[in-house]
Amino acid sequence: MNPGVEAHQLISELIDHVETVVVGKRKVVKLITVALLAGGHVLIEDIPGVGKTVLVRAIAKSIGADFKRIQFTPDLLPSDITGLSIYNQKDACFEFRPGPLMGNIILADEINRTSPKTQSALLEGMAEGHVTVDGVTRALPVLFFVMATQNPVEYEGTYALPEAQLDRFLLKLSIGYPDRRDELSLLNRVPDRNPLNELEPILSLADIMYLRHQVASVYVSDSMKNYLMDLVEATRTHPMITLGVSPRGTIALLRAVQAYAFIEQRDYAIPDDVKAVAPFVLGHRLILKQEAAYDDVDPLTLIQEMINTIKVPVLKKEMVK
What we know:
The protein is α/β, with parallel strands linked by helices. It is built from 13 helices and eleven strands. Strand 3 and strand 4 (about 95-100) form a beta hairpin. Helix 1 crosses helix 2, helix 2 (about 25-40) crosses helix 10 (about 245-265) and helix 11 (about 270-280) packs antiparallel against helix 13. The chain is globular. This is Magnesium chelatase.
């Protein structure tokens, strides 16, 4: 990393670089960058064809990372993603053949189409940073980032992920359709020219690890931490919610707030950072009561209502350090 270049500027350049390929989705790119810098993982629930694969490949190429794609199917086995030991007759010993999970940036495509046993193998890697194959624990790369996709559960052959699995994702997002202007720009691209093929790395894996260290040092005042707790506790007492945010979710929110503040070129967090990331960090961690479905209430709406009603702290100069 060039010591003369501000770390904040590097992040802006990364987002701009990815957006040359993924047109009109700056907010989504920004939030995925939040997860990358916070050391978390992302779940995207959306219909096929909106650019999920292109997005994650663009991020991987922009940081020179080892990209692996896993297509989850009902017959996929845990060893298909973690790897397995194969007997080498020449050397008379077993050799470990690593699976696609042994990469830096992993696209876990249609994760809700595979069996719970295979999902748990991915979960171990996401949660622990290692996988167990034939009784041997094998460490994953230091920079290990999973972007999983799932089709809406209304689609045939899909099954909702268990709560424990959902809680392992820092963010849950939806890309959505591009607006008319952005989709027209896609149509006007030169047919035989794929901008993804022309994308060059602008950061290294070492740069990302350095930026993660910088993000962890973003200052969050006591009043801001109490603001986070007010929001989390509201999810645990809301009459429409059966199960609120866990302590793991509280920590995830703090990490996301720090990363968002850093992307906004600050070394301290403010309430607007919480408002920007809270729906995407907390929404998928809630279990709603049955009457919420009857009233057509969804988690994101409830989180937004809480944000609108909880008192926002006024930060004094000494609080922002």
